[in-house]
Write the structure tokens for this entry.
Amino acid sequence: MFDPNSTIVQYLSWMAMGALQVLVIQGGLAWAKERNIPMTWWKTALVYGWFASLVLTIAGGFTLHGELEGNAGWYFIGVLGVGQLIAGLAMVKLLLFRKA
């Protein structure tokens, strides 16, 4: 039977998550270039930092859930996720809706 906690499946899932994160970041930068949004070094660092923080929030919540602390995991994702959502919306306003 298929065991989701087998050694090879864990490594493959982490590799797939890493590959998807690279595709999301590179796709976002290509999207910004296609839309003629100037991405300076600090804007790029802001986007990278926000995305890394979002990924860590989700990973931390599901780690707690996996260690049989389900309520703590959902609260972790809920509380920090709302903060991430607010920060992401502020970042979108800063990057996309600025006057020239």
User: Anything to note?
Assistant: The chain has one domain: 7-96. Residues 7-96 form one domain. The chain has a mean pLDDT of 86. The chain has three helices and no strands.
